[in-house]
Design brief:
The chain is of the alpha+beta class and 88 residues long. 39% of the residues lie in helices and 19% in strands.
Length: 88
């Protein structure tokens, strides 16, 4: 999985515009499936960064959205400073 950062006209200062790029899943399985290589590489991340990575990875391929620090912190049970350290 690749996460591309882009700029969106609709984003606000606390958001990062994200495009999720994934390999195709087999047999139409749910989009949260992650190939083994990506999963193994993600396991090397710090726990808070892994939570954010998985939050993003749970979206379907080519899904584009503005990453909201407020939502990520709420869903992943992270403080804003932990989020900032993980994202930058």
């Amino acid at each position: 999985m690749v996460i591309e950062r882009a700029h969106s006209m609709n984003q606000v200062d606390n958001q990062k515009h994200i495009i999720v790029i994934k390999t195709n899943t087999k047999n139409g399985k749910p989009f949260a499936l992650i190939d083994q290589e990506a999963w193994q590489r993600a396991m090397l991340l710090r726990p808070s960064t892994f939570k954010i990575w998985f939050y993003i990875a749970s979206n379907t391929n080519k899904y584009t959205f503005n990453l909201s620090s407020k939502d990520v912190c709420s869903v992943c049970s992270l403080s804003r400073s932990t989020y900032n350290r993980a994202i930058t």
